[in-house]
Amino acid sequence: MPNAVSRVLWPLQAGVVLVLLGTGLLFLRTAGSEMKIPMLVLGTVVLMPGSDLSCPQGSRGCLPGAWG
């Protein structure tokens, strides 16, 4: 059982970290005018895999228990 739980929680944890990092990079766009485009690109590149990892893993962990 612990192995199954870690297979669900590790990608979820990595996804949450990437989402927070990407959101932070997007907020850094306002730091300076020369940082606007690079931070937008870098924040988007980091945010998208994070949202992909965190959302499906959360639903895979909750739905099978609800379905029986």
Low-confidence stretches: none
Q: How far apart are the termini?
A: 16 Å
Which percent range describes the beta-strand content? under 5%
Tell me about the largest β-sheet. none
Question: Given the C-alpha coordinates, what overall shape results?
Answer: rod-shaped
What is the mean predicted local confidence, pLDDT? Answer: 79
Query: What's the helical proportion of residues?
Result: over 70%
Structural class: mainly alpha
SSE order in H/E notation?
A: HH
Number of strands: 0
Number of helices: 2
Written description of the protein model:
The protein has 68 residues and is mainly alpha-helical. Helices cover 85% and strands 0% of the residues. The chain is built from two helices and no strands. It has helices at 2-27, 36-67. Helix 1 runs antiparallel to helix 2. The model has no long low-confidence stretch (mean pLDDT 79).
Give a brief outline of the structure.
The chain is mainly α. It is built from 2 helices and no strands.
Highlighted features:
68 residues; mainly alpha; 85% helix
SSE inventory with pairings:
Blueprint: H1 2-27, H2 36-67
Helix pairs in contact: 1-2
